[in-house]
Amino acid sequence: SFSIKSYKNNEHIRILNSVLSKWLINPKILHFTASKIQYPYNINNWISCYYNNKSTHTSTIEIDNWIIGHLSAKLNNETNSAHLFHLIIDENHRKKGFAKKLIDHVEKKLVIENNINCITLNCVRKNKPAVNLYQSIGYNIIKEGKYLKMTKYF
Length: 154
Fold this sequence. Notes:
Elements: E1 2-5, H1 10-23, H2 27-33, H3 43-50, E2 56-63, E3 66-76, E4 81-89, H4 98-114, E5 118-124, H5 128-136, E6 140-144, E7 147-153
């Protein structure tokens, strides 16, 4: 199932922190996910760096009420666009289609509820599984550097 979590809600923060602190214990995963944050992961740094914006929404995918995936989107209503970030799938649930399902769920919500017609994301060039995933679901590389900027139009 899918649910919306808020980094403004203390109970949601507690739940997200317990999951994120397990996922982001690996410095490589923290770097691939949130390059602005120094290791070790800290929920307060995470929130102040990425989640102090009212136009940011986070969705999770859950199995048996346990979060196995996380994806955030930052809306830009002036340009009818959104930027996806912080896609994380629990290690034990990777390569099972959950990332695709979560992205699809968030895309549909953005397009239907917010009239979004363009979604962007950045991906570490070396993260080949992520690059392949994004390309397989319609994202195109529009800028190359240390990070790949990718776009999909609706």
